[in-house]
Design goal:
4 copies of one chain form a homotetramer. By secondary structure, chain A is an alpha/beta fold. Chain A is built from 12 helices and 15 strands. Chain A has a 9-stranded mixed beta sheet with strand order 1-15-13-7-9-11-12-5-14. The radius of gyration of chain A is 23 Å and the shape is globular. Chains in contact: A-B, A-C, A-D, B-C, B-D, C-D. Chains A and B meet through α1, α2, β2, β3 and β4 of A and α1, α2, β2, β3 and β4 of B.
Amino acid sequence: MRTWGIGTALLLLAACAVVASGAASQDLKKWQKGKGWGWVWGPQDEVGSLNEMTDASRLAALRIAKTGKVYDLGILYDRTSYKWPGHSPGEIISFRTPEGVKRQADSPALVTDNPTGTAWHSCALFLNDNIATQIDGLGHATEGADDHWYNGFKEKDWGGNWGPRKCDASTIPPIVARGVMIDVAGAKGVDSLAPNTAIGVADLEEALKKQGTELRPGDVVLIRTGTLRHWGEAGADHAKIGPADSAGITLEAAKWLVEEKGAMMIGSDTSGLEYGPKPEETKAYREKYKSFMPVHNYLLIQQGVHIGEFHTLEELARDKAYEFGYVCATNKIKGSTAGFTLRPLAIR
Amino acid sequence: MRTWGIGTALLLLAACAVVASGAASQDLKKWQKGKGWGWVWGPQDEVGSLNEMTDASRLAALRIAKTGKVYDLGILYDRTSYKWPGHSPGEIISFRTPEGVKRQADSPALVTDNPTGTAWHSCALFLNDNIATQIDGLGHATEGADDHWYNGFKEKDWGGNWGPRKCDASTIPPIVARGVMIDVAGAKGVDSLAPNTAIGVADLEEALKKQGTELRPGDVVLIRTGTLRHWGEAGADHAKIGPADSAGITLEAAKWLVEEKGAMMIGSDTSGLEYGPKPEETKAYREKYKSFMPVHNYLLIQQGVHIGEFHTLEELARDKAYEFGYVCATNKIKGSTAGFTLRPLAIR
Amino acid sequence: MRTWGIGTALLLLAACAVVASGAASQDLKKWQKGKGWGWVWGPQDEVGSLNEMTDASRLAALRIAKTGKVYDLGILYDRTSYKWPGHSPGEIISFRTPEGVKRQADSPALVTDNPTGTAWHSCALFLNDNIATQIDGLGHATEGADDHWYNGFKEKDWGGNWGPRKCDASTIPPIVARGVMIDVAGAKGVDSLAPNTAIGVADLEEALKKQGTELRPGDVVLIRTGTLRHWGEAGADHAKIGPADSAGITLEAAKWLVEEKGAMMIGSDTSGLEYGPKPEETKAYREKYKSFMPVHNYLLIQQGVHIGEFHTLEELARDKAYEFGYVCATNKIKGSTAGFTLRPLAIR
Amino acid sequence: MRTWGIGTALLLLAACAVVASGAASQDLKKWQKGKGWGWVWGPQDEVGSLNEMTDASRLAALRIAKTGKVYDLGILYDRTSYKWPGHSPGEIISFRTPEGVKRQADSPALVTDNPTGTAWHSCALFLNDNIATQIDGLGHATEGADDHWYNGFKEKDWGGNWGPRKCDASTIPPIVARGVMIDVAGAKGVDSLAPNTAIGVADLEEALKKQGTELRPGDVVLIRTGTLRHWGEAGADHAKIGPADSAGITLEAAKWLVEEKGAMMIGSDTSGLEYGPKPEETKAYREKYKSFMPVHNYLLIQQGVHIGEFHTLEELARDKAYEFGYVCATNKIKGSTAGFTLRPLAIR
């Protein structure tokens, strides 16, 4: 009985430890070291590497939490917020206000038959779906003369007027996974990386070593450049954010993360994750990489790996919180090309 | 040493058990039985009852998860989706498409200097902020000749053209709490409650008893009417959804949940949570309750308790999953009056 | 001197009479009886039959005015207005209001440094470009596997994300021409034609004869069905407008107007000008005419003749004002497919 | 009979001459020299000085046309067009395209039952109502603690969520009047006036004298600064347009035009008609004039005189065409605060 007592207790503790360590995430279904994923999930798949999630991997991610502290990785959006200029602008406009409801009396019963003078606020929003804290859907980037995206879906078959009809952001499952923050800016001892900083494999390895973090297959990997240190309240200081926003990972770093480390999703605190060359180097860069956004081509189209953008990592950096449970669910809007104005959570 | 072994192990197990049971949520900071909350969080507060969350309560909620199964409580939104007709309509429109990018060549460098023919999809969205799966911000409902909302914020002080400037949805903190689903439709043995069904205290008690669930202070309580059984792909069948959508809780039930049970947030699978009377009973109802939406007045304005709307509970009902960790974070858009097109998660 | 006096005066009077009669419009540049126009204006042309206008024809049209009475042929648009359900919905929303400007103080200098408390109203509009009183651009309708429109412009060459890049509504020149209203409803002695009334050549001839009007090459011909008798303030009564809106001209009537009579533009008081068959006759109709809108194919694509829609003709009918100077200029918005919310003028 | 012949002919000729000279416009209904108008049209009036138009005045204006040449005073608008930054941005977006219609097949009958492959283009527009060529409605500007506008309409009574409910742009009647262009830039011998040029009474008098034009009560007066020489295709060169746009008339000039000359509407080729001081002079200017836009306060609110903005006058200037028939009708949109993307016509 004593033995049972001790034994059972120890077994339970051991079970607990295993779960908490996230060991389950090491046995991925389709990932191959040296190759990553690709179009391996069947011809109708719209989910990509996120298919790797299982109940066990999610449970392990949730169990990373030890204190219940939650970090909000979202940044506040308003009409002034910095975004890529190729996207449409945004307005949040009061559609109904209590004064308007009462003055217009366009719903007479709500005005006359209403002793407490109850009314409401609601807003009409005109937004682009690539704003603030985002997760790119696998239909966001296209390539080729046939304009195909992940898994070979082609514009002539699956394009539309109301967004792509395959791999829109509503197909992104809720993401619950082990998250790792790689604080490149921190490892370099700077608040924010210089504009046009290319983050290569060595930079990631150096930062991981300094912070003592190990990557595991199935991770959501978030890379900190420090760009969002300039966000302020709502991203109005474009002159500061814009240049910083060009720091990012190289194609080689993206490949290393996916093919060697099994990163299931990769994000950063910039609007595009990837390195942007200086104007005078742009032409040569595009000739070499054959695209103006080779990391997007590689991750979204070729590997089926989602990209996280404008995730603020400042508070995680301050707390040296490098490992966490990452929880995020995108807006459920048919045809949208990305989740937007999100608040991914890092739970600890 | 043996003693230490046993003792430590048992202590740890005990600690584990306490955490997992969510016991921490019983000691709320400001809630008073028989009274609930109200404007108790200081004159500048915009958060209301969600201030009750602590690291401990969040950790307890996360620890409810035993298998890692995640339920997505969000419903898919598109231009056809049912919503209250007083809100503005919605469109998701392709803003950029690969063919358009190439034909227009309005960014010449992206077309000519681009050997892989890389391009992209993005969408422009025109949306109301009260659509699909929602959490109402505390600035949504107003009352009185001074058009005030929660905590006494008045339109003349805090109104604006770009949404209310106090208690917008960006002030709603990430919600991580014990969630309880009360399956009223299930308890009544129907797929979906009849239109204009008033759910009172006895109905809630009956369902709780049948399903063997106990409410605890600090819970997110979700009440199932079965309305979203009619949602289909994206809510296009207004003729079915509309009538069902009028089932909901009475003011008395809302008071009981808040004042007797300490519900920190209350939601349902309808667009408005609360009971809507038949046309011929509407006038008498409004005279009695002095508002066309007395549950909103009570919860949002008077108690500072957020309302969850259009949370789909069908899968939870199928699995008889009555207790779960509820995790949801609203869009982070300044001025918005509600979180919208959300995907709250129920983790088990 | 007397002779001179008489002779000169009579000559001048005669000249006056010639101008006023609109005689100049009889010598069109490209129109051929029995054929109409077609793609006769050169391969880059985006204007079509409106190229026929000359200073002389415009002057003649202006000289039709004898009293200076002006009829406003536009109908009022708001969010409730009837339109074809395949178009996007519309909202006119207060973007800035004096109270909002002052409460927000987002432009501090405009609030503090402003002794008179000056402020302003402006609105944000979300609109479709095919609403209320319209003139369809020649890029509105397409046909063929190559999706071409007037003059052979093809989608693969001239499509775009921001509207068609050939024949948008901004290419429509200001229209000043002799206008003729054919009051078919009046000739039939009804307020409004029955739903699905097909207006054929005989109906037009009958009405023209009854009203004593002669068509001339270069005319803007407006056909009255009486549909807008149901418009009310702003077109909210869809149940009445919708059915009436299906009355319209047949393809044969359109051909007669263009090929035999030289109509330079054809319009009516419905949303689509052309006859819409009853549901049970729709399939046969489409098989016969090979399109769901053969009059659009014929006029816009094949002939380069613009279509006027939702022109209210009620007041003209009341005054039996069958001939007038028609003056209309569309919105000058690049990429728009139609002029909208217009107020064409009939001057008398 | 001879006598009758001669007499009648001469009488008719004389009548013709009177009409063509526009003499009818000298007898205005309410204008008083030295005072102008004001709130003289009755307490419900929303039209202001445009009430002066009569059949006779319109006919006289139309008869100014001698050749039938028509000048389009509108400028082309697209997403890049310069506008005051306090207005909401704009997008013209393809809502339906032939490829989209066919790929989506969301209206199956239009795709399958359609042998010619007919389809269509339409656009969704997100616009501000103060863009490109405009006419400000009398509800655009407000003043006072009670936020009133023309004729004493107050925000608390006539404000709304969907635009002001009195004096919206749909109340502006079709304008047909004698138009006079005062070419101030031409008189000064410059292409475009220097930034922050204040155009005073003497400048107007000098230009009128040089060009030999006489103002008459009831005129639409358009003042040329040359700013739209920088518009290019669609106003994308903000760096050039912005500074030039600050040239305009002083309050004294506005008063002289209205009170001494009876101008029924005043416009120019800038976005705001009135003089904008240099930054360093702004504070003193506002203290003196008690408003950041005193000409707007005076014309719109106090006098009920509409303002025309961004009317291009370049071609009129080239042709030294100083007198013309001005014809313009604003969009008929309920609640809109200005007519926008207009094409006013100058007929000669």
